[in-house]
Amino acid sequence: MALNDDIALLSNVSLFAEIGDDKLRLIAFGAERRRVAKGHELFREGAPADCAYAVAVGSFSLSKLDAEGRPQHVDTVSRGALLSELALISMVERKFTATADEDSEVIRINRPLFRRMLEEYPEVTAMVEARIRDNLQTMIRRVEALAGRFA
Known about the structure:
Layout: H1 3-11, H2 21-30, E1 32-36, E2 41-43, E3 48-49, E4 51-57, E5 59-65, E6 71-78, E7 82-83, E8 92-93, E9 97-100, E10 104-110, H3 111-120, H4 122-147
């Protein structure tokens, strides 16, 4: 695919939605496209995460192991989804297994590339910080909503 196609895709990813095309060009140019055949895993739950993946083509089933070690379907994601976005900021473990539902393609964005963008564009750092803060506040509200069940 052309660089402009990757920039267009990245501009539809929620984390990058407010970032201009000129800045996304840095990510698109340095990122790597990968093909994943139907039925193959993109990554496995518990593995170290050193990058995020933007789904460019196809779809992925996300699953987690239950208490007995059996995979349980959590969600299905498709074009424009960003998997493991926290890995762009910090070393984390994959929280689920991603398996291709069909022949698919992803854009692999590694942490050093993302950090380079943050260093070169401080305004992007502020946007990402705000996005992480909003995500944490949303998570806190969800936990607070469940608190009554455990009182």
